[in-house]
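Example record

One chain of 409 residues, shown exactly as stored in the release files.
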Amino acid sequence: MHNFQSVTFVLIFLVGTILTACGGGGPGNEAIATSSTNSGLVDVTDGSNIIDPENRAPNADAGAEQNAISGETVTIDGAASFDPDGDTLSFYWQQTEGDPITLPDNRNSSISFVAPMVAAPSQYRVQLSVSDGALSGTDSVNVLVFPFADSVPPGLVSRSPKINEAGVATSTVVTATFNEPIAVSTVTDESFSINRDNIAVAGSVSYNAETFTVSFDPEAELEAEAEYTVTLNSGLEDVAGNRYGGAAWAFTTGSHYNLGQTDQSTIDTCMSEADKQMLTRVNNARQQARICGSSSYVATSHLAWHCSLEAAAQRHSTDMADNNFFSHTGSDGSNAGQRVSVTGYPWHAWGENIAAGYATVESVVTGWLDSPGHCGNIMNPTVTEMGAASTSNSSSDFQIYWTQVFADR
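Predicted structure tokens for this chain:
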């Protein structure tokens, strides 16, 4: 930690002369005088009298005390810390007072964090420890956080279904997402309502605190090809007590499909008319007890459509049609689970039905339900989502190839 030098002197002897050697280099070295001898050389010290000072503890400096408002970024800088011996320092920050807060990168010379939401002025203490590898020093800084003086009402950033949207699924859940947290105490069954011809739709209201989303879930499916009016009432407030002004809009349902809990964004993103027909026929089948060969199945829950499972099904149908084969094993040796994994879908269970030569959704689903193994896949209560696709190729043996993929995550 402390460097020193040893200095050795070789002096040339002249007869009858007394020589003096002066040593330099490290602290504590002194001039050494010796008398002449017959050897022609004079012995001198080797520097062993140099003193190594004791290591001194570093000084930690966490900076001046700070005030902050909830939501602001607080930066605490320990760069003024120093070591009196000039040694390199390591830093470590930790909270010692107040409700727990997260201190990211707490081994840097400075840290930043977002001041927490508080209802009244609240003190937080953060301690800095610095070390030179042997000794350490500490210092603390207080941060006083004041409540955020919010006077802006919450704003609506998205809604589903959208304003005047048509073809909405009859199984839709109506949602409204805000730009800030909503006070849970203000979310009631009166916060959200849906009406058709001035008749209220029965349902329940819920709130997702992570996404700031208020939802209305109808007790029963909506009527097909009907217009509905949504009213988001003004009783909702943000956590600062600012009241939302309310909103109203309309949407129209499409044909009567049985799409389970498929969300509107999935319907808009990847579902064609054929997809809706496919899911409707599968869900209609699952809502009735059924015998598949020698196995009996009770009525079970509806499936939801998933775009990734549709992509996996499309890949296999296209592979069979383009390469003129009929098998669960792909031309690249893949199975259905591997094809689903490629899409990024994190499955826990999967199943697959394939068919060839059927011209319509109705005929292929009927064929699958008449086959014990395929019927069992459709009725399997373990799976919760599905996707399906077909590909036509007039030069292949069967011309049209179908794939259904079932999974759970």
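Notes: Confidence is low (pLDDT under 50) at residues 1-51.
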